[in-house]
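Example is below:
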Amino acid sequence: MSTELPFLPFSRPTIDEDTIAAVGDVLRSGWITTGPKNAAFEALLSEYFGGRPVRTFNSGTCTMEIALRIAGVGPGDEVITTPVSWPATANVILETGATPVFADIDPVTRNIDLDRLEAAITPRTRALIPVYLSGLPVDMDRLYAIARKHKLRVVEDAAQALGSTWNGQRIGSFGDFASFSFQANKNITTGEGGCLVLNDLEEVRLAEKYRLQGVTRSGVDGIDVDVLGGKYNMSDIMAAIGLGQMKHLDTVTAHRAALARHYFDCFGADFEERYGAQLPVQAFGSSNWHLFQIILPDNGPGTRAAFMTRLQQEFNIGTGYHYAPIHLFTLYRERGFKEGMFPVAERIGRLTVTLPMFAAMTVADVERVVAAVKQVLQPKVRQQ
């Protein structure tokens, strides 16, 4: 039993004292809703994404819905996405009145299989929502070639991909819409929140309307509403946290890559063969290593629950799983989805486990996790 060791969660945010003090300054300022800190945060994000226009929001979910609405997606349209993601990715399609269409995932990258995505395109397809699982982008060249060929809009669910790159370019610095999350377990956080990278000023104006009740102001007292908006603005309290967090993004990204390298070193080249589990792709130079996930050997019902329980109870190590297949939730079964439709997603969704990975982790923490994982899994008996 190793429960005397401190609990090691799968994720934990790190907020420095300067950022905590900055939040205090905002609270004392009397301007705690959307204001000057939010404007500064948007400007910093725009600079980070190569000068593209950026607007902040109170979640990385509404960002995708608003992008779809700006793209004109609505009833009668189809939007293709992956079944392995947080439910938000598909729920936002339903929110617009469109129909979600799933394509199975690649068993190695665990991202949407672009061959299957293209095969799922119909005359009703209006947009694509790829998800960059664990921070690993899809093949961006192929994705946008497909989009151009079929004249489709792309809403990148880059919730986990801040700091990830493709061929040396930051995700979000090119392409179509890019949606990022600042939820508590992301590489940088504002507590909750997100941002949407847009293409031009017309889209910016629409995003601002959708962000706050469809309102347009003019002059001293002029106000009009011409679209149905919501209440999605980011507060200056959240923006102050974001400004502080962005100072550390490059350092955090480099540290996560170092932790990931140490995970691979500690698991060893023969881990998959000896233990029957699957490690992630060694995507150094593109992934921001938001998550480090393994796929367990399939030992029947209860495989993952038993594994996670033992790590918690015997080694005081927390884990997560990202994600259960969306199409098997009741909301989607009622729309005709069922077992067997996306077998790769269903297997990985049942056996994936997220191991600890966060900015304050040390190499010793990684070694502790790997030793525990190996002890729980037990190596296969080698044949003589």
Observations:
- The chain has two domains: 17-246, 249-377.
- The chain has 14 helices and 13 strands.
